[in-house]
């Protein structure tokens, strides 16, 4: 019993860089100031798909209003809605739609800057969220329709920004990201600090990114998950899920192991066997109540942790609201 629990904990520690929330289709394609964010090489992108609390101001993740105690929604095979995965700290993340608004505004502002500097280059449009994307895979897959169609694969989305973006020349890099000589002029104008993308971010972020607030919320999110892995209540329900899977002939110690099974990620599309395993995974989650029980444990941990510094959470929410207002203003042209 102790060795199995230790093994799950080791898996989480291996993927700890992901736990602050770096895994979402939006985050994988986002160009952050001065560099392109690309998380496709992270092993935990397949093993531990958290992605439930990536904050505006750097790498963003989707969310909906908080539901502090996750509740299951019954359907054929007992599936769950994305709302069933809401945890208290998710009140301080953003929806896929709002994320898209902010990214589109940044691209529009950056492209206007590039045009002003006399460049013919333009950044590609920001992608829209996949219509059938799951908001979180914190405890593995959670949506039956998605599992039936994609298995353990991520739902299809628009072509990734890094696939659409043509290679940049040194001069284009300087104009876009401010590399190789901030402040040098092009067409008689000075390149903004951080390049045109830096200028766009400064306009959208306005008063600046509340780094301490983001760090605190991310810490709450990360630590509750890490603590829950070693919680006896979670261990009991995960073992029950594993036993249920074994009854159907599938040997997995946890739903984080099944979602990260390498044999399911050697091809671009899910095969029949992968879909069968994924649907059995969901059936077992429903039978043992894994999502609501695990979520309830984490919700309690997060509520206590959030009491440590509520002012930082207020700052974070205010920043997100301000950022969205500025983005909508930029998109309206006012």
TrEMBL record:
Domain of life: Bacteria
Region Disordered, annotated ranges: 62-81, 178-197
Record's compositionally biased regions (Polar residues): 66-79
Protein name in the entry: Lipoprotein
Source organism of the structure: Streptomyces filamentosus NRRL 15998
